[in-house]
Amino acid sequence: MTFKNIPPRKAYYSADGKLEMNLEEFKIWLKKSDANKDGKISREEFREAVRSTGSRFSRLKGWRGMKSADTNKSGFIDENEFNNLVEFAEKHLRVKIV
């Protein structure tokens, strides 16, 4: 899976206050969390991504997100597991994937 460079657009919020983004924008946001550019998201990198949303309890949400997404139990979220985070993000990170 490759990531396209999608030009930034104005942030949109749904009626319930969730940030709306499409799946590609969500994946780009995740890829930006990859601080060491190794192509996968570590627990710490994901926790920092959660913190960047302004979400409370970033440590707990980071742990839960990793647990739900890291299906191969490698300790990292790789590109094949990014889609696993969609449901988690919508439920816990005030994000709505449209």
Short description:
The protein is an alpha+beta fold and 98 residues long.
Overview of the structural elements:
This protein is of the alpha+beta class. It has 4 helices and 5 strands. The protein has one domain (17-97): EF-hand (Recoverin, domain 1, Orthogonal Bundle). It has helices at residues 23-32, 43-52, 58-69, 85-92; strands at 12-13, 19-21, 40-42, 76-78, 95-97. The strands form 2 sheets. It has a 3-stranded mixed beta sheet with strand order 1-2-5. A two-stranded antiparallel sheet has the order 3-4. Helix 2 (43-52) crosses helix 3 (58-69) and helix 3 (58-69) runs antiparallel to helix 4.
Briefly, what CATH class?
Answer: Mainly Alpha
The gyration radius over C-alpha positions equals 13 Å
CATH superfamily: EF-hand
Please give the number of β-strands: 5
Q: Summarize the helix and strand pattern as letters.
A: EEHEHHEHE
Please indicate the count of domains.
1
Number of helices: 4
Pfam family, one: EF-hand_1
Organism: Solanum pinnatisectum (tansyleaf nightshade)
Protein name: EF-hand domain-containing protein
Domain EF-hand: 21-56, 66-92
Fold topology:
Elements lengths: L11 E2 L5 E3 L1 H10 L7 E3 H10 L5 H12 L6 E3 L6 H8 L2 E3 L1
Parallel strand pairs: 2-5
Antiparallel strand pairs: 1-2, 3-4
Helix pairs in contact: 2-3, 3-4
What characteristics describe this protein?
98 residues, alpha+beta, Recoverin, domain 1, three-stranded mixed β-sheet, two-stranded antiparallel ribbon, 4 helices, 5 strands, 41% helix, disordered N terminus, EF-hand domain-containing protein, EF_Hand_1_Ca_BS, calcium ion binding, calcium, EF_hand_dom
